[in-house]
Amino acid sequence: MSKHNLKSTIDRRLSGLEAKEHHVQVVTALLRDEKPTRRKPAAILAISFVIITVIGTALAVVLPPTIQWFQRFYGEENTKIFTSGTLMPINQEVVLGDVVYEWTETIYVGDEHQGDDAVFANALYGTVNISPREGSNIVLIPEDYQLDDPIGYNLLLGERAPEGAPSYLETAAKRNARIILAIAVPEGILKDGKLQDLSEIGYMYQTNKDGSLSYHYEITKVADMQEYQILMSIQNWEVTREGDWLRNESQDTWLKEDWMITVRDPHAKKIP
Hints:
Layout: H1 3-13, E1 14-15, H2 21-31, H3 65-74, H4 79-83, E2 86-96, E3 99-109, E4 123-132, E5 138-141, H5 168-175, E6 178-191, E7 194-195, E8 201-207, E9 213-220, E10 227-239, E11 255-264
Parallel strand pairs: 5-6
Antiparallel strand pairs: 1-8, 2-3, 3-4, 4-9, 6-7, 6-10, 8-9, 10-11
């Protein structure tokens, strides 16, 4: 992947934030399997939505999906930052057409982390898993991927597919399945029913070997509260075998829903 294309990919994930030169340097180092030197970024949004190299790294302890994701990027030495945060399990599902969205949890990291760790502070982190509905015959394709890309490999995250790996198109043809592009994008935090002005929201995704997708998000500049109302936009639509999106008046398969959940600090006192 060229440096220009890499920067374009990063820009699309840092909603409202331009990818800085340091972001690209860190990702390039990771793709060379080097350990980058920690520097304080100019923006408080951590570079967690830039890129990672190893998707299949075995973890010694079974951790929540959100912590697993950030551990893979920041390293095991930073795991305590996320495990010391407030874990708020969600485990809610929404079915949209032939696609199941499972919001597993969100984690709040407060302002107790100062110094180099301040970049992680005052932020919500979380995960939404996306999978085919039981009994459906679909192939999920991630955004930014082409039909002839090998299925199940995170090419934009530095993962390499073996020679001859089947593509999304080949897999769909073999199964006589429909190809569905599905996303789960955070919109921000609601307060008194109104969406707060939080421009520093980012997300990244990974494709899994079982055909599912996982979206991971970070919402920054979030105050420590007893409860949070988070708004997520979930969407999916069919992609033809010629690569056309069926999101037009004649053939509109576009399904979308605003999904709002309320999570509470399990240790907080009940709100009157």
